[in-house]
Amino acid sequence: MIRFTRAVRGVHHATAVLMLICLVTAAMLYVPALAEAVGRRHLIRAIHIYAGFGLPVPALLGWVSRAFREDLRRLNRFSPADWDWLRGRDRRATAGGRGVHPVGKFNAGQKLNAAFAGGAILVMLGTGTILTFPGPWSDTTRAGATFVHDWLTFAIFAVVLGHLWYALRDRGALSGMFLGHVPEDWAARHHAAWLDEQQRQQRVPGRS
């Protein structure tokens, strides 16, 4: 069954590539051993800046896609089932082949991850602008921007590693994001409410 359209997957992949470029170049600029081994600091800094300013672009372009806007709407809403999912000890437990928690298209962890990513991009864009164009800003503002930019980078590293760890262990999720479709039994185990919604829509006359 279809989970993500090509436009939605394109936004995700483009944002992921830009984020990884930012993280890798940040490491090359911040870690002395890496900076010395790689060299070409001006080039690495330029790549870092261009990738950073490019981070919001995929989402802005994706806004023309109705499917992308619908997914953003879903990500922006927390339901009682999401709180149950967060409190559950075994969030992937199944009962009769269906998920114990009636999770919609996105679970609470995915919603929190999306909120963090969106907020982090905006904060990094703001602080990065101050650091790239320091002229108009006071020393205090630049120092604060540096502090926030550096420490938020560490938080992003941790969240990205956690995201990759969970994603690479879930073949169904990988199939959804790279191929666009998922097996129905996977949807029943992990996103039962979303599966029910899709099945109801298919039963509506006039829908294929």
Give a verbal description of the structure.
- A two-stranded antiparallel ribbon has the order 1-2.
- It has 208 residues and is mainly alpha-helical.
- Helix 1 (6-30) runs antiparallel to helix 3 (41-54) and helix 7 (108-132) packs antiparallel against helix 8 (139-168).
- A hairpin with a 2-residue loop joins strand 1 and strand 2 (98-99).
- The protein is elongated.
- It has helices spanning 6-30, 32-38, 41-54, 57-62, 66-75, 80-87, 108-132, 139-168, 171-178, 184-190, 192-203; strands spanning 94-95, 98-99.
Index terms:
208 residues, mainly alpha, Fumarate Reductase Cytochrome B subunit, two-stranded antiparallel ribbon, 73% helix, 2% strand, elongated
Q: Number of helix segments?
A: 11
* Quaternary structure type: single chain
Rg: 20 Å
CATH class: Mainly Alpha
The biggest sheet amounts to: 2 strands, antiparallel
Structural class: mainly alpha
Helical proportion, percent range: over 70%
Task: State the domain count.
Answer: 1
Low-confidence stretches: none
CATH topological fold name: Fumarate Reductase Cytochrome B subunit
In round numbers, the mean pLDDT is 89
Cα separation of the termini: 12 Å
Strand order of the largest sheet: 1-2
CATH superfamily: Transmembrane di-heme cytochromes, Chain C
Strand composition percent: under 5%
SSE pattern, N- to C-terminal: HHHHHHEEHHHHH
Taken from the alpha-carbon principal axes, the silhouette is elongated
